[in-house]
Write a structure and sequence with these properties.
This protein has nine helices and nine strands.
Length: 270
């Protein structure tokens, strides 16, 4: 199979999976009226965003569904949302129209932002989604290209250990059944607590998640691990698994200033 065929294959399958999820799933929860009254509070529980985003160009990357884009628009930002799923983007368009907001929607993949100009955004905000592409390097490179110098990149990712779990035993112990250096699509597993049905997922190691971010031209400013432990949840619930296996990591990164050529030629003297 050629590289192009492989690329279109995972994109096509993930698009189909997320189109299904756009119909009534937990991922299709649009922004509420209460959230829109204080959108930055809903978007940013960690204090990572500036005091105001009014007038800023914001790219909501792989975040269709009518939540993130609507909240940024409610806060006065100029919003573009890019997502692989037409179904998810329809929720953004519907909610924006209903609320009278202007939101630009683009159907596309996070690892190909060629339709977007260099240095055109002040903020890129990306929820958990990099697990759906085989290479995170291209994602980071594209984000670095479209962000302005000192631009903010806020993202959330699946931790490697989350992708490595294959099953829960009769003694309610979790089995790390996938190698840390696994390459290619993740195999099917018994424990699907943090898998989306029908989607193709990939494991990205810490070297790729954090090291790759730095190598792409960012400086890491903060890192958080969202608590997903629920001590009242039944054993088959993802909240029970969250007591033992951290599912996600949140990263706050800043685009380093580009090294620009002055065009001047240094004169060599003997």
């Amino acid at each position: 199979m050629s590289t192009d065929d492989s690329r279109s294959g995972y994109r096509r399958q993930n698009q189909t999976a997320w189109n299904r999820l756009s119909d009534g799933s937990q991922f299709a929860k649009t922004a509420s009226d209460e959230e829109c009254r204080d959108p930055l509070k809903a978007l940013d529980g960690r204090g990572w965003l500036p005091p105001t985003v009014a007038g800023l160009n914001v790219l909501c990357l792989a975040s269709g569904g009518g939540w993130q884009s609507i909240l940024y628009a409610a806060a006065g930002a100029r919003v573009t949302v890019l997502d692989l799923s037409p179904g998810m983007l329809e929720l953004d368009r519907r909610e924006a129209t209903r609320r009278g907001y202007s939101v630009t929607t683009i159907e596309g993949s996070m690892d190909d932002l060629s339709m977007l100009h260099d240095e055109s955004f002040d903020i890129v905000h990306q929820p958990v989604s990099t697990c759906y592409v085989p290479s995170i390097v291209k994602v980071y490179q594209e984000i670095a290209r479209v962000l302005r110098d000192e631009g903010l990149y806020i993202s959330q990712h699946k931790q490697p250990i989350c992708a490595q779990i294959t099953q829960r035993t009769e003694r309610n112990q979790f089995i790390v059944g996938i190698e840390y250096f696994h390459e290619g699509p993740l195999p099917k597993v018994e424990d699907t607590s943090y898998r989306e049905a029908g989607a193709i997922e990939y494991l990205h190691r810490w070297d790729e998640l954090v090291g790759g971010l730095c190598r792409a031209g960012f400086v890491l400013e903060d890192l958080r691990e969202p608590r997903r432990a629920d001590y009242k949840a039944p054993v088959e619930h993802f909240g029970y698994r969250g007591r033992f296996i951290p599912p996600y990591v949140r990263l706050k990164a800043r685009r380093l200033p580009r090294q620009r050529s002055t065009g001047a030629t240094r004169l060599w003297l003997p």
